[in-house]
Write a structure and sequence with these properties.
The structure holds 2 protein chains of 2 kinds. By secondary structure, chain A is α/β, with parallel strands linked by helices. Helix content of chain A is 40%, strand content 21%. In chain A, the strands form 2 sheets. Chain A has a 6-stranded mixed sheet, with helices on both faces. In chain A, helix 1 packs parallel to helix 4. The radius of gyration of chain A is 16 Å and the shape is globular. By secondary structure, chain B is mainly alpha-helical. Chain B is 61% helix and 10% strand. The longest helix of chain B is centred in the C-terminal third of the chain and has 19 residues. The chains are: A alpha/beta, B mainly alpha. Chains A and B meet through helix 1, strand 4, strand 9, helix 5 and helix 6 of A and strand 1 and helix 3 of B. Strand 9 of chain A pairs antiparallel with strand 1 of chain B.
Chain lengths: 215, 72
């Protein structure tokens, strides 16, 4: 049965991190569409609180994927507008599975959303670090350095779309992080300096809520 | 957590390790912004929030590496 996927992906002001997350989300958007799912793409200016709230209410998506900046108690959209904040509007995510690719929101925001009825959330408890090739920013999808960080993070979404549980999707993501860490630590790699940052993201990725939930 | 001398030695080690990052690489740290290698080194020297986070990441690495059992 086709699923509804809502994606927020802001793009603004020379922010390299935001730029990469924006483009990397196109991979799972394309995958979701190929599999016959409906994608509600809140890109750029549409990644705002008003549109998000309205679309969540009207369409009740199965999966919500945030890409942007975050902190312990909130996640943001276009120009840093707060989209969801703990003790404010977490109830808008009631009944959904959520992926948050942003800093730190796994610590307070995600548990708070679960308390207010979200089904399950995969997020990061601390800052999400990633490295990219500054020479190759015109082609972010073929940046092999960024891929080491962003592919395991977004693998969660493809896995959920394939029908896996939240726990299985988290485990697949963790496995790919581990493989990438092994790859950069290999004796013939010149990217060993990335290992500590990959480990940081890996250990701070958390599944919260109903880990047996599926789309 | 550490005495002043140990803290300074840890910072020196972390700076030495950061110097292995190629200068052409960009580093995204969420809403803190985008950095270059030498900017990260400056943050460690200044002992600010980003600098402290880098120390935490380094210590986490040393602590976690064995637990991860990467070659099992």
């Amino acid at each position: 049965m086709p699923k509804k996927l809502l994606v927020t992906r802001p793009l603004y002001g020379g922010d390299g991190g935001i730029y990469y997350l924006f483009h990397w989300a196109t991979i799972y958007i394309k995958f979701a569409k190929t599999k016959g799912n409906e994608v509600l793409d809140l890109d750029e200016k549409r990644a705002n609180r008003k549109d998000l709230t309205s679309i969540l209410k009207k369409t009740k998506p199965h999966l919500v994927c945030f890409n942007g900046h975050g902190n312990y108690d909130s996640v943001t959209g276009q120009e840093g507008e707060i989209l969801v904040k703990a003790k404010d509007n977490e109830e808008i995510l009631k009944g959904t599975i959520v992926h948050i690719l942003a800093c730190s929101s796994g610590k307070i925001l995600a548990p708070s959303c679960i308390q207010k009825g979200a089904e399950a959330i995969i997020a990061y408890k601390e800052e999400f670090w990633f490295f990219y090739d500054r020479q190759g920013t015109s082609k972010p999808l073929i940046d092999s350095t960024a891929k080491l960080f962003l592919e395991p993070a977004n693998l969660v979404i493809n896995s959920l779309l394939k029908g896996n549980t939240v726990e299985e999707s988290y485990n697949k993501s963790q496995k790919l992080y581990k493989e990438n860490i092994q790859k950069v630590l290999a004796s013939n790699s010149s990217e060993g300096y990335l290992a500590k940052f990959l480990i940081w993201d890996m250990v701070n990725q958390v599944p919260i809520g109903n880990k047996q939930a599926t789309l | 957590m550490f005495d002043k001398v140990t803290e300074e030695k840890i910072k020196e080690l972390i700076i030495a390790r950061l110097q292995t990052i190629p200068p052409e690489v960009g580093i995204s740290v969420g809403s803190e912004g985008d950095f270059k290698r030498d900017e990260l080194i400056e943050h460690v020297k200044q002992d600010d929030e980003i600098g402290k986070k880098l120390i935490q990441i380094d210590l986490n690495y040393l602590r976690t590496l064995k637990e991860l059992n990467l070659y099992a």
